[in-house]
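Below is one record:
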Amino acid sequence: MPGRDLPPGGLDRSEGFGERLLGLLLDRAHEMPPQMIGPLIAEEVATIGGRDVSILLQDYSQLFLVPLSGRRLTVGEPQPITGTDVGAAFLLGKTVETAEADGVRMHLPLLDGSDQVGVMSLTLETVEDDDRRLLRRLAGLVADMLVTKHSYTDEFFLVRRRRPMSVPAEIQWSLLPPLAMTVPQAAVAGILEPAYRVAGDSFDYALNGDILHFAMIDAMGHGLDAATMATVAIGAYRHARRAGIGLSEIYAFMDRAIAGQFGPDHFVTAQMMRLDITTGHLEWVNAGHPAPLLIRDGRVVRQLEGPTTLPVGFGGEEPEISELVLERGDRLMCFTDGVIEEHEEGGEEFGIAQLIHWVNHAGCPEGGVRALVRLISHTLMGKRGGRTSDDATLFLVEWRGGTADHLASLR
């Protein structure tokens, strides 16, 4: 700062305006009640001349952004994700600015890591680069706070619900990891339908060092029994994965857990995969699950057919591990049988051919894997008349290669 003596070492550690603004929020975050997040955000935005602040969260069906109510927040109608400025900010993960008669309306994505939580919207009379930088960082801090406080309250759950949710769906949603994750070398995204009645489908993933672990499961049956079985299957998968054992041993552990808990007449189809995000080397075990699709340059190249073993719970033999080296930009689409087996009464099944057709038709939409998996799921639901008699889950992985070393440097 001009006229100010610098401390030893020549670094100015004084607090600037932006740091004070963000620091106030950060200092209070650890003890702030969830319902106070909105009012404080509105107050902070007002200090830079902003007004009409809205915080919108994604609904469970990924169709709408629903406004959070609260003192000093502007609460309007839920906004469709498709075809709106606020939806574009959400899908693309980028700020969208719209000129209005009384200023500029800004829509900033709320990103927790790389998972889109929702959007923060506000109006400024004019917008400069300093405003954009400060508000982008504020939106990131708001997203982190919403995710942190999410487990302390039912308020955010209720905002995201646009219809009643079944008990099995409640269980399944509480079991899921974030619906999307992006790092420089890879990206993942998943979606579940029917969002408010899903029971036996689930997926899980974890990035441990350079290895991306992911799995998709489909428990037999419907309702609470299926949700309970899916819970045990995912719990067993996580436990075995964290023990550092191989895919064959993970299958055996899950198999014993399901058989021991539910007996010989119950099963879970499963697909467990591991991807080295530095080399693109993929390994997988298929336990009675539909073979995933390999997508290259926006088109399905083939299904990853290979040796299969019995579903988890049936005591199958030690599974054979399949392997493949991906090319940069390759995508893998895993899906449950509800995606392709749905049919109108007396009609033909939807089928793998139609799934491949619509994947090819979708191509590579702007917004990456999150936008693609959402587009395909909603397209398929539309082709089935907006309903499904079975869970229909999609999980998409993209391998990009490269390194993330630059993110650990301040230069």
User: Anything to note?
Assistant: The chain has a mean pLDDT of 89. The radius of gyration is 23 Å. The chain has eleven helices and 18 strands. The CA atoms of residues 152 and 405 lie 35 Å apart.
